[in-house]
Amino acid sequence: MTEAIERAAEEIRFCETILAKSQTNVLLETLRDAPDVTAWSHYPVGDVYDYDTGAQWYYHCHDPSSDAEEHGHFHCFIRPHGAEGPAHHLAAIGVDPYGRLHRIFTVNHWVVGDDWLSAEETIPLLHKFDVQLARPSYLVNRWLTAIFVRYEAEIAALIRQRDAVIAAHAAGDMDGNRQDRTLEVTAELRL
Fold it and tell me: pTM of the entire structure?
């Protein structure tokens, strides 16, 4: 492991340990201010956006979950040209009902309706995902940031696989395939 990856793995453990000592976890901390949890709703309301880095995320769950082990996931984006600029989906980070990392995955374009970039254009943006905000939870923000450092190579591979799966789907028409609702999750890494 490189030094940066080791530091990120330590950061993940640190955030999880502090949250556990406080009798919470990344999931409970994310949903702390929600009066109830509704499928497809974004938590926190209005998403999280770091104006300095362009990193953005929200959490949501599905009902019923297509994966009984997964409570929901954090959709993570980057807006390299600021809050009014295009948003590019990087990956989704799935957690189990106890807030433990469950999987990292990529999705088809129609799922999040982002400003689509190819893998070669998306991968260089991964290192920009860095959320340094106190709200809604400093530890959740640092945990997500560390996930992107620790698993950067794996996320890059998932993004490449995303493009290959979409290109190979059905007739191979990239634009049409990106809107095909029969293709949702394009690549995943179970942890």
Answer: 0.93
